[in-house]
Amino acid sequence: AQKSLKEAYKDYFPIGVAVSPRSVAGPEVELIKQQFSSITPENAMKMGPIHPEKNVYNWKDADAIVAFGEANGIKVRGHTLCWHNQTPKWFFTDSLGAQVSREELLARLKQHITDVMTHYKGKIYAWDVVNEAVPDTGKGIYRESKFYQIIGEDYIEKAFEYAHAVDPDAKLFYNDYNTESAVKRNKIFQLVTKLKEKNVPIHGVGLQAHWSIYEPTQAELEESIMQFASLGLAVQITELDVSVYPKEHERRQKKEGEGSTFTPEMKQKQAAHYKMIFDTFRKHKGAITGVTFWNVSDKTTWLDNFPVPGRKDYPLLFDQNFKPKKAFDGVVNF
Ligand code: XIL
Predict the structure, then answer these.
(1) Which of 14, 96, 136, 205 counts the most CB atoms within 10 A of its CB?
(2) Is 43:52 a contact under the CB 8 Å cutoff?
(3) ipTM above 0.85?
(4) Cis before 80? omega within 30
(5) Tell me, what's a Pfam family for it (predicted)?
């Protein structure tokens, strides 16, 4: 019989997958149990879903995912405590609709982090504390988010401090995408270097790894892994998928006839790319302490219709019938 992902990588790092309350109760369950040793709630622990109104928490969805993990011996990664997306408006406004003060926003951030992490204390081995705080381009290293505008740059260190105070055993991560582009990578590097210098309790950097069959190159990938590891930080691959479309497609309208087909050439290219990626991960065993895929199979991926409406994508190792793809072989056989 063919090895599973988690068997193949048991001496390297846990292999995770992003899940929803539906996916842990639906047709993908067997595949999740068979292949993965870690799960990340795809949306259920984000501010909007879990904390929709002031002092109102919706634990149901995230609880179902954590319970599934516990019942099946699968570890749970937490995602995410502080992000500019999927955060409700109330978080930044008072009861009259005016923007809250720095002190009030810090108090709310602290309350949020404390409540969520206390609820799951001891059940989550790693948390994405701050997500996507760095801009892709431009001069500065801080994204112009509401957190940054209202609190200032120290919202990031505060978030880590609040988190560490609640659960000193959880590994705390800064998580971001496009970490292979030199510009963005250097910004993130500056940010985490500052945090380390100030003794902020940060333990690792999450590379989201929303890649495509055209990127990154092995050199770019190795450079990011080694650069962050050089600071004594763990590196986790937190949201891996390999789109079959080039990234430039995101920046222009879908062309007639473009997209939604998974050609033999794409399959071949994807298999080769996945092999390169995992060869590289294994080479940096030690620096890398986890690899998580963003969704289970090509049947449902967040990349369907995103960023190009009407376009189907095929970014994972299992096909629409949950069968291992060509790319799977090169990942488990080494
Ligand atoms: C995505 C989810 O997969 C979607 O279901 C949701 O609609 C939007 O968010 N970076 C992140 C993830 O850190 O939380 C995002 O997840 C994908 C990009």
Answers:
(1) 205
(2) no
(3) yes
(4) yes
(5) Glyco_hydro_10
From the number of C-beta atoms within 10 Å of its C-beta (0-12, 13-18, 19+), residue 71 rates as exposed
Q: Tell me the per-residue pLDDT of 44-98, one tens digit each, with 9 for 90 and over.
A: 999 999 999 999 999 999 999 999 999 999 999 999 999 999 999 999 999 999 9
17: nearest Cα among 44, 35, 2, 4: 35
- The bridge status of strand 15-19 relative to strand 234-243 is unpaired
Report angle CA 313, 75, 129 to the nearest 5 degrees.
Answer: 75
0.95 exceeded by pTM: yes
Annotated catalytic, 265? no
Alpha helices of the chain — where are they, by DSSP H?
5-8, 29-35, 47-50, 60-72, 102-119, 146-151, 155-166, 182-197, 218-229, 264-283, 326-332
334 CA → ligand 1 middle, Å: 31
What amino acid occupies position 57?
Y
> Tokens for 194?
């500052």
Going from the Cα of 43 to the center of ligand 1, the distance in angstroms, rounded, reads 7
Ligand 1 atom at minimum distance from 46 CA? 14
Kindly report the three-state secondary structure assignment for every residue of 117-182: HHHCCCCCCEEEEEECCCCCCCCCCCCCCHHHHHHCCCHHHHHHHHHHHHCCCCEEEEEECCCCCH
Token digits of residue 93? 């406004």
